[in-house]
Amino acid sequence: xxxKIDNExxxxxxxxxxxxxxxxxxxxxxxxxxxxxxxTEEGLRFTVEESRxxxxxxxxxxxxxxxxxxxxxxxxxxxxxxxxxxxxxxSVFQISLTALLETLSIFGFNEGxxxxxxxxxxxxxxxxxxxxxxxxxxxxxxALRTTSVxxxxxxxxxxxxxxxxxxxxxxxxxxxxxxxxxxQDEIPLQRDALAQKIIMRSSWLHDAIxxxxxxxxxxxxxxxxxxxxxxxxxxxxxxxxxxxxxSKDQQLLETFQVPxxxxxxxxxxxxxxxxxxxxxxxxxxxxxxxxxxLSLQFMIEIEExxxxxxxxxxxxxxxxxxxxxxxxxxxxxx
Length: 334
Description:
single chain, alpha+beta, five-stranded antiparallel β-sheet, 9 helices
C-alpha cells in the first residue's frame, strides 16, 4: 500500500455498533452484484441498477453510526479551475455488494430465528414493526441480540474499502477491492410533474404483489384514478389474471393525490425485486410522474425512533407495448 497514504488521515471512517443494521438495509437492494458508493458529509449512498430500467438506492445517514468522519482532499485553485468535480471523483467508487453483505454477516446472522421474522413471508421472512411478524421492530436491539461493532474506512481513491468487525472478543478485518465508478445517471422522477402520490402501509402493498404472483405474471399494471376503483394492481399470466383493488379510505390510503386517471405497466419481476424492502418497511410512498416513471420509497423503522429510507425506481413499458407479452420495450424518456 502507498506509504504516503498510510501516513495520511483516511478519506472516510465510520463506526456502527450494529453490523446487522447495515446488512439489513443493504440487503434490500441486493438484486445486482455491484453497487456504486458515494461518500458524502451526510452519509453513504449505495446505488444498484439493472439494465437502466430499475434502480435501488439505500442511504445510510451518518446518524446510523456512532462516529462518522469524511475528509475529502482540498484542491488548489489551479486544480479547481481545471477539475471542479475532484471531491466527487475521490468519494465515488464501485464495490461488490454480494461480497460486502457476506462480510457484514460473517458472524452468522440467523434470520430464521428472529422473533420478528414471519415464516410465511415470501420475501425472506421479514415484516415491519406494523406487520404481523412479532412484537419487536426489525432493528430494535432486543430483536437483534448482537453487540457487534463494525468499522468502515476508505483511505483514498483506488484503495480498498476496509471493514473491521468485532464481536465477543473476535476481530475480523476484510479489505474489499474498489472499482472505478461508472457513469450512472439516476432514473429521473419529475417531482414537479407527478401524476400520482399515494402513501400506504407497506405490508398491504407487499401482500398485493404476493397475491398477484399466483398467475406467474410477466407484467404488472398499476392504475390510479380520482374515482372508483381508486388504486388497482393487476396482472395476467399463463395461469390466469388477478386484480387487487384499494379503496380511498384514509385508514387504507393515508395519502391519495391523483388528479386524473393514469395507467402504467412495469415488469413484474423488477417490482418484486423490492419485496424485501416492502416486507420490512412500515410505510411506502408510491409516486409516478407524467412519463410513467415509478418511485417506491420505503420508510423502515430502526431503533430509538429513527427511520431510514430505501428508494426504488422503475421505467415503464412503452404504451404501445403493453399488450405485447414478448417484447420488453421500455420507455426511457423523461
